[in-house]
Design a protein that fits this description.
With 329 residues, the chain is α/β, with parallel strands linked by helices. It is built from 13 helices and 15 strands. Strands 12-11-7-10-9-8-15 form a 7-stranded mixed sheet. A 6-stranded parallel sheet has the order 3-2-1-4-5-6, with helices on both faces. The protein is globular and about 60 Å long. The structure holds nicotinamide-adenine-dinucleotide (NAD). Nicotinamide-adenine-dinucleotide (NAD) binds next to helix 1.
Length: 329
């Protein structure tokens, strides 16, 4: 039974702690949160003890650390976990600074400890199956990927101001997915953005509507479309075009029931937001980490994947700000 220390009992910490508790292969031994009641409530639910971040990281009866605290704490907590010799599963992003990620990864590399980053979309059953068929050659060699990702509504302004901007906060998931699908590094990024949903987002120096085109050295192209608004729910679709055909994965609806009348065909809404849409993906991500740590397999997405996605997010932000394509090294 792998004994976890979970740091952060907020939205995503709860999802992960519940998966660990239900896994039958691991347990949440300790939980920490800056808000004592948040830690106490979740600890009671999953059968854990409450302790401080520092005590959890050095505890002899903790085998692995799961980091679900706000982004500014991730790099320090990864380093502390690694220095204590513990495998770490950390929520995305490692840091909003590429330099800070590089420093953090050097420590992990020096300690030779395991670090997995929570890019959950790789574990979505449909996206994972699509990527496997792609690698198995179902549509020949990849030429172009299209990723559409729209949130049902914008986050609160307090969140927007600290998020690092749409490219680093929201599109980071799609940038990782692009690398996962295309299987090559992107070397040039071209971005457009606007605040069409809420002018306050623009006034805060961010965008709520964006499109990115990226290209690899061999010429493969990816197009990503993001919006902080979709009147019909959490729009999550991908399509990959290859030399022998096309693969695509669409949205998932609440039910498959359709009503047909003279007005046309009407189906249920699509799953509303990330906890519903990616529930299976979050569970599969944590179970993959448990399996890797228990059996000694390597993990993916790794710290390097976290770094590469952040480089693309920085390039997209710079391209939007300057209006010019940005090369990525
Ligand atoms: N992979 C995904 O789809 C996904 C989804 C949501 C959030 N996230 C990431 O997960 C992280 C947490 O996001 P969230 O939405 O759960 O936030 P949240 O605000 O709901 O939860 C964060 C929790 O951490 C606690 N906290 C703050 N500072 C702390 C500290 N120093 N030590 C211990 N606990 C501390 C807070 O009290 C809060 O309960 C962010 O980095 C975010 O980017 C990823």
């Amino acid at each position: 039974m792998l004994r976890f220390g979970v740091l952060g009992a907020g939205r995503i910490g709860k999802v992960h702690a519940r998966t660990i508790a239900a896994s039958g292969k691991a347990k949440v031994a300790y939980l920490a949160d800056a808000i004592p009641k948040a830690a106490a409530d979740l600890a009671a639910e999953v059968g854990a003890k409450v302790a401080s971040v520092e005590d959890i990281i050095k505890a002899k009866d903790v085998d692995a650390i799961l980091i679900a605290t706000p982004t500014p704490f991730h790099a320090d907590q990864i380093e502390a976990g690694s220095n204590a010799g513990k495998p770490v599963l950390c929520e995305k992003p490692v840091s909003l600074s590429v330099e800070r990620i590089e420093q953090c990864l050097k420590i992990v590399e020096k300690n030779k400890t395991t670090l997995m980053i929570g890019f959950n979309r790789r574990f979505d059953p449909s996206f994972a199956a699509l990527q496997k068929r792609l690698r198995d050659g179902a549509v020949g060699s990849v030429e172009m990927a299209t990723i559409i990702s729209r949130d049902p509504g914008p986050p609160p302004m307090d969140y927007v101001k600290l998020s690092g901007g749409l490219f680093r906060d929201m599109m980071i998931h799609d940038l990782d997915l692009a690398r996962f699908l295309v299987g090559e590094e992107f070397t040039v990024v071209n971005a457009l953005g606007a605040s069409l949903v809420d002018k306050a987002i623009g006034a805060a120096g961010d965008v709520d509507t964006a499109a990115v085109h990226m290209q690899t050295a061999s010429g493969k192209i990816c197009v990503i479309t993001n919006s902080r608004r979709a009147t019909y729910g959490y729009d999550q679709r991908i399509e990959v075009h290859g030399s022998k055909g096309m693969l695509r994965a669409g949205n998932i609806h609440n039910t498959t029931v359709e009503v047909a009348t003279a007005d046309g065909f009407h189906g249920d809404p699509i799953l509303h937001f990330f906890t519903e849409r990616y529930g299976q993906a979050y569970a599969s991500e944590v179970l993959t980490f448990i399996d890797a740590v228990t059996t000694g397999k390597s993990v993916a997405p790794s710290g390097h994947d976290g770094l590469q996605a952040q480089k693309l997010a920085d390039a997209a932000t710079q391209s939007w700000a300057t209006g010019s394509p940005v090369k990525v090294v």
